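Page 42, continued from yesterday. The earlier attempt failed because a stray header line got pasted into the input along with the sequence. Redoing it now with the clean sequence only.
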Amino acid sequence: MAQRILVVDDEPNMLRLLKTILIGKTGYEVITTNNPLEVSKLLQEDPFDLVISDLKMPLVDGMDLVDIIKKIDANLPLIIITAYGTSEIAKEAVQKGAYDFITKPFRKETILISIKRALEWKRMQGELQAFKRPPA
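This time it went through. Structure tokens are written below.
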């Protein structure tokens, strides 16, 4: 089964670009939304393996999404992308629970490596949780 990635960005061109990059040779199932208010509903309807979100969006920004996502699934990695990156914002995002922080413009290879690492981290978190469960 393909790994599912949710991409959230208020700019349709960025959604198309990320979907093209991710579907290309990776085989990921990519769901996109330009409405960050839909994220909670989407995550509760179907499981995702990763969320990629823009930082600056109207109504709900990427920092707010970190909190929303972590309440639904503490082990769901979130990669934040932004054109407004500073080291302070990146540090704050990671401290809140974002897996990675990537500044625009980014290279295709940069986002693909970050995604691969985030998905591997999620897989290892699942194995760790299974290992910690008491035997039946």
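Notes: The chain has one domain: 4-132.
Reminder to self: strip header lines before submitting.
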